[in-house]
Amino acid sequence: MAYQKFRDRQKSPTKRFLLILGLIMFAVYFSIGICIIFWDKFPLLYGVDKIWKISFGLLLIVYSFFRFVRLIKNQQHD
Question: Where are its TM segments located (predicted)?
Answer without folding.
Answer: 17-39, 51-69
